[in-house]
Prior knowledge:
Blueprint: H1 2-12, E1 15-21, H2 28-38, E2 43-48, H3 55-62, E3 65-68, H4 74-84, E4 89-92, H5 104-114, E5 118-122, H6 134-147, E6 159-162, H7 163-169, H8 178-189, E7 193-197, H9 210-231, H10 233-257, H11 264-306, H12 312-319, H13 330-335, H14 338-349
Parallel strand pairs: 1-2, 1-4, 2-3, 5-7
Antiparallel strand pairs: 4-6, 5-6
Amino acid sequence: MTAHRVADVIGGHDVAIVLPCRNAGLAIASVVIGFQRTLPGATIYVFDNGSDDNTAHMARAAGARVIREPRAGTGDLALRIFSAVDADLYILADGNGAYDPADAPALIETLIDTGADMVVGARGPAHAPAGQGLRETLMAALVPALSESGFSDWTSGFRVFTRRFARSCAATTGRRKIGMDLSLHAWEVGMPTAETTVAFVEAPEGAATRASRWRGGIVALGETMDLIVTLHPLALFAALSALLSVPAIALAGLAIAAAPPFGAARLAGILVSGGFGLAALIVGACGLVLDGLNRVRLEQKRLAYLSCPAFPAGRAAARRPIVAHGEDDPTLQAAANPTARYAERAANAA
Length: 350
């Protein structure tokens, strides 16, 4: 029944395949053709993120719609994707050929079965951060610890999500990698999500220089602080306030114990202690303000999410009875050949 249900989604909804890439001229044509064969009828968008090779030319030649985003970086690219593409269902994949387009129907099928708003193509436990830099390794370990969510692959670049998901996070992504921002958004809003294992081809490990490793470490530390402030601002600033309170209390005790009562040592101790105490109060107040703003941000995201109608395929699939077919049934034969089934529907729609 997989071919029937996925074909119904492709034929009855506006499906967009989004392929962000940079300098992927050697692989983008095969990726576009692979998705055309797997999901005919879907619209393929290639987002060229400042490439200086023939990526755009190869994508157009393969039949994709090319949208240029000259500003390098995943933040601007994510905002560009959500502002330029309006669809009922989005399929996000890397344009460098790391993922197999043949796995896309499994992601859609999982979304239909579970009624989720996003299905992540998890690369599985075999995908270790061995080929990644310090930035990816640190964030992959830190995000699950901070969010306490069940995602096994936060940063996967292969996923399917609904219009409801896209419209609610269009203005909130941008500070981190696209995959991680989407996962964080789903966890913060509390929307239904699912995972399914997909094939993944690890890119060849490059010869990273010491400078690039140091740069990646600095970026990782900055992203770590940003992540903590975003997810748990009150806990972070409360801890900093407590740390500042320790020298304030210690210096106050020393100043009181100092002699003579009106000596310079006591006065200096009181002034320094007061400075630490004031800093602790300011930091604690900042934590309360940021926590309040964070709550407002989450409520706005949830309202934006709930204001969009749910994707109907999940409800329809849940009510659809399972019908047994004979081996000579033409419907079952078409289901055994998904490519032919999708091609037939695309031809009829045209």
